[in-house]
Amino acid sequence: MIIPVILAGGSGTRLWPLSRKLRPKQLIDLLDDRTMLQNTLLRLQGAKDMAPPLVLCNDDHRFMVAEQLRSIGTEPEAIILEPVGRNTAPALAVAALKAVAEGADPVLLILPADHFIRDLDLFHQTLAAGAELVERGYLITFGIVPTSPETGYGYIKKGKLIGPENAIAATDIEKFVEKPTLPTAKQYLQSGNYCWNSGMFMFKALQVLSELEKFNPAIVKACRRALAEGVFDLDFLRLDHDSFAACPSDSIDYAVMEKTDRGAMLMFQAGWDDVGSWEALWQVGAKDKSGNITHGDVLTHDVADSYINAGSRLVAAVGLQNHVVVETPDAVMISPRNRAQDVKHLVEKLKAAGREEVNAHRKHYRPWGWTLRLVDMAGYRVNQIRLRPGKSITLQKHRDRAEHWIVAEGTARVTRGSEQLTLQADESTYITRGMEHRLENPGEAPLVIIEVQTGEFMEEDIERLNGDG
Question: Which domains, ranges and CATH numbers included, belong to the chain?
Answer without folding.
Answer: 2-273 (3.90.550.10), 278-350 (no CATH), 363-464 (2.60.120.10)
